[in-house]
Amino acid sequence: MNMKYVWLILLASLSFFSHAAPKAELWLYWNKSNEANLQMIDHSEWQHVLDNNLSQQDSNTLFDYKHISPTDRQSLRDYINTLTNLDPRQFNKSEQFAYWVNLYNAATVQLILEHYPITSITKLGGLFSFGPWDQDIITINNQELSLNDIEHRILRPIWQDKRIHYAVNCASLGCPNLSTKAFTADNTPSLLKKAEFDFINSKKGVNITDDKLELSSIYDWYAVDFGGEQGVLNYLSRFKPEIQKINKKPSYQYNWALNEK
Questions:
Q1: How far apart are CA 89 and CA 215, in angstroms?
Q2: What are 214-242's pLDDT values in tens digits?
Q3: Is the Cα dihedral 100, 102, 103, 107 positive or negative?
Q4: Transmembrane residues, as ranges (predicted)?
């Protein structure tokens, strides 16, 4: 095949993956819970890794991939193994939500560490893939799952909470920050509220200059979760009323650089 056409196909593929967002389509197998089960899942190992490797720089929370200790690497592996050896369907929905969010974030950090040094998570996933999100990376109950499965086939369709986009982290500067606290059934409401507030009030979330409105591409990719473009503007106006005075359509941006210390 002519190399010119190979590059055209490659560029088209990259363009598609950088702009297309998966739909929320329920994986019915995981939509089960035991609300009578009051058992709590232990997320202390994940909290330990976060405590030792996160730092704040301006509005960004950064992970120290370069200097993470062998002990913390092992703690991360042990934590992921512990979660994947559980059947989340046996827990109540509040425990499940924390389980899936923490697993998504821990697995993402693990992916970066396995391939570090890299400049962006988008470098992973193969020649014709924009990132690793469609790759099966964990197995639970003999079911292979990808990061996209967790976010778009479990979290979004089951909980139907737009703030999920502030909770899961894609290891990029443009993403809502990786939470410094491990999610638990008890702290989820406060962490979601804080993540929402922090992102909307950061320039990577909402940036207003003169009469121009620049939004994170999250509000473009997942506009359906916010009620469409007008729904996005109405929602953000609750936090920033000045948006209502802007007549121009918003532009969108996203920074895929690694959230590296």
A1: 36
A2: 999 999 999 999 999 999 999 999 999 99
A3: positive
A4: none
Residue type, 35: E
Residues 8, 209: Cα–Cα separation, whole Å = 36
List the domain range (segments joined by +) for residue 116: 42-253
Beta-bridge partners for 212 = 209
Provide the residue count of the chain: 261
Residues 125, 18 contacting (CB under 8 angstroms): no
On whether residue 20 sits in a domain, the answer given is no
Concatenating the DSSP letter of every residue in 196-249 gives HHHHHTSTTTEEEETTEEEEETHHHHTGGGGTHHHHHHHHHHTT-GGGGG--SP
Total domains present in the chain: 1
Question: Percent helix, strand and coil across the chain, each rounded to 5?
Answer: 50, 10, 40
pTM beyond 0.85: the answer is yes
